């Protein structure tokens, strides 16, 4: 049976329909039903309506090749398009992206402060998942990586400290199908540029141990062979955290979920699902100050639980009141320091700059209110060695001291952590000692293991 050949213009139309377009320009807007697809087909940007809603519409970025719809960025999370009204995303005359509803009301926009458009400017969706407004000369004037929602992708930078004091946070979705901002957020601690915190509103919910100056922390999962490298980057005295994945790795993301849990997730193509290989806080005693003053989360136990630091005992029937000293200190008389190894350093520390180990010890010893101290040498390539103190000199060490109670302390089970020097009555130090435990790598599931190492590099150079 003969077939009538299709006209050339029909063939061209079909080609156009199948072509992936990765950019918006002042001449081309994005309307309901349209989407941008990155050049390699990894990510898509378009309009979506959550499963639990029939009226609210958002503009967002999701994985284009993963069958389980997974959003990594939402522009108008707190101001959806209502009542099923069609929306439009367009580039304005001053090179800004503007999201509007059918009535022309602006629901979301970038702010580039350009007075006029530059011919050739485009908003481009990259295979990294980053949406970038780029000028013809290659200058990027805005990018979605600088305004995340609940997800961090490889090569995205999260600030731990900034010169202007403005810190960016991941903010969790309100519910699994509601992208609106919740009370849970995660980012650098504004009171210290040394740690990352998850907040529930204004209250800390989980806290990462203070940085000890290491540049790289490598995470390895053997069943698939991928490597995640978490890096501290110093850019002109500002510290950023970022993570990269080895070439050929499956899709991976870090997200803060609606329950306040931070997760590193990897896509398993065999099971067609996301698998978490790191979750924090986990176990439950890792929640902020869960074990009370002078108590600590002992993750080295078979079943992690709260214990008292050496020289302390429970102050009540549970750990809601923490622990109390077995023997009271007498200022300046028969005090000594017990070395606790592999510890998560407590919160609420005083950062004393440019001290030797002996000087750090003396800072604590001569202050009767000092309960403990920790020390790290920041030379040999540490990011902190480039930070300036008030006199303009580079910091060479990190001396932390604690005045009063110690809260949110833990012991790592995988060989991580650092030494915490705890002040006790000398007689107590003689009676008690803390044994360093050797623990095998954590088993993540039946087929995989996680090995976490903190590596200090003297020759590591991080590009700015």
From TrEMBL:
GO terms for cellular component: membrane. This is non-specific serine/threonine protein kinase. It is an enzyme of class 2 (transferase). It comes from the Eukaryota. The keyword Transmembrane helix does not apply. It is a single-pass type I membrane protein. GO terms for biological process: recognition of pollen; response to other organism. SMART domains: B_lectin. It comes from Aegilops tauschii subsp. strangulata. Its main location: membrane. It is found in: Membrane. InterPro entries: Bulb-type_lectin_dom (IPR001480), Bulb-type_lectin_dom_sf (IPR036426), Pan_app (IPR003609), S_locus_glycoprot_dom (IPR000858), SLSG/EP1 (IPR035446). Involved in sporophytic self-incompatibility system (the inability of flowering plants to achieve self-fertilization). One of its GO terms (molecular function) is protein serine/threonine kinase activity. Residues 21-146 form the Bulb-type lectin domain. Residues 1-20 form the signal peptide. Residues 331-425 form the Apple domain. It catalyses: L-threonyl-[protein] + ATP = O-phospho-L-threonyl-[protein] + ADP + H(+); L-seryl-[protein] + ATP = O-phospho-L-seryl-[protein] + ADP + H(+). Coiled coil: none annotated. Its EC number is 2.7.11.1. Keywords: Disulfide bond, Receptor, Signal.
